[in-house]
Specification:
Elements lengths: L7 H4 L3 H10 L1 H33 L9 E2 L9 E2 L1 H16 L1 H27 L14 H12 L7 H5 L7 H30 L10 H8 L5 H33 L18 H17 L2 H28 L7 H27 L6 H18 L16 H14 L4 H32 L3 H8 L5
Antiparallel strand pairs: 1-2
Helix pairs in contact: 2-3, 2-12, 3-4, 3-10, 3-11, 3-12, 3-16, 4-10, 4-11, 5-8, 5-10, 9-10, 10-11, 12-15, 12-16, 13-14, 13-15
Amino acid sequence: MGIHDNILYLDMHGGSFAYLRVELGDFVGFIAAGNILLEYVIGGAAVARSWTSYFATLLNHDPNDFRIVARSLSPDYRYLDPIAIAVLAIICVMAVMSTKGSSIFNYIATIIHIAVLLFIIIAGLTKADTKNYSDFAPFGVRGIFQASAVLFFAYIGFDAVATMAEETKNPGRDIPIGLVGSMVITTLIYCVLAMTLCLMQSYKDIDVDAPFSVAFEAVGMGWAKYVVAAGALKGMTTVLLVAAVGQARYLTHIGRTHMMPPWLAIVNEKTGTPVNATVVMLAASAVIAFFTSLGILSNLLSISTLFIFMLVAIGLLVRRYYVSGATTTANHIKFVAFLALILGSSIATAIYWASSDGWIGYAVTLPFWLLSTIGLWLFVPQARAPKVWGVPLVPWLPSLSIAINIFLLGSLDKASFERFGIFTLAIIVYYFFFGLHASYDTAREASSAKQMKNVEEGAVN
């Protein structure tokens, strides 16, 4: 449950990174930035590998027929995907040529995609069999939450809406409408498509690589699988292009802060696009897409996404309840104490969920979370109110967001956490040896508030 608050989020042109950097400091902002970039890289890799799967279906082949098998490698990394690299290379060329041209392509592609989605839903429901829903939750409650945790990777693209704020005419109005509206519409479509698929086929028979194409063939509509596969390829191409534009803007903004090499923030004068950032991000996606299986990518991506959503919820509470020089020492202490209890009880709930099938632990952790949120609501006055638009039901909604995101983290596997830990350790080492000093030197050179603003906007070399 991602939470974003106030027009500041829009003005900084950097989405979650800028928001967390302002509210929680450079270190947390950089950790968030690293994970956001990881999301984009892994997300692009996952979609590129799926592109290969649907392309194979379109040609009546198994996806691995188009992959190189390196049997000396681990099963999770042995299926090398050259088609994924080729697709990402084409997307890279399109993304660096023109943002306007990419927008026109996306507009046309979106119309086609809507038509394909309507076809899948209508045609699929004509083959619906309610018997496939007889075993509605075959893996129980735990299976539902495990699936929910993995599915969070589908929501990484929404942050790109805020990243594109500097290219909109009225970001204060357009970004909230675009962000909330797109999330509502997309979530509804996800649910309807999932319902349609499960009515067409038993969950036991759903194909992991190309579910809808195989489902249509299984119900006797073999011709429809070609429509679905072609529509999926078009849709995934659009997703990759939009992600390429958004992730390059993210890396550009981080480069402007000098936390990463500032040459990443260079914008090509002719095309108006950040060529260096685009090439670096898509090259990283291509390397990962070449080796890594979709299952590993989706789990690691979900951990990163849930972690960022949790941090943004904390950032919102900090923004509402703490203002330097205005919040009293007593209120500051109370706020930190209640926030620590909210985090502690949420983590304890997640650990208990991951390690036990009982219920006694929840009788302790959940009341702690509830009382901590009530305490924050009743005993700590809010120090700041949103000027233009803001999240309602504070502190309840951000507190619930923290609890849910941490709880879902407890549903993911140990190996994914180990990979996430290694990546986080790597970016922390980079920050303390390079990013911290570069950003400090840049900030020190800014002798006025105006100069500091120029650093954020990339005007200081």
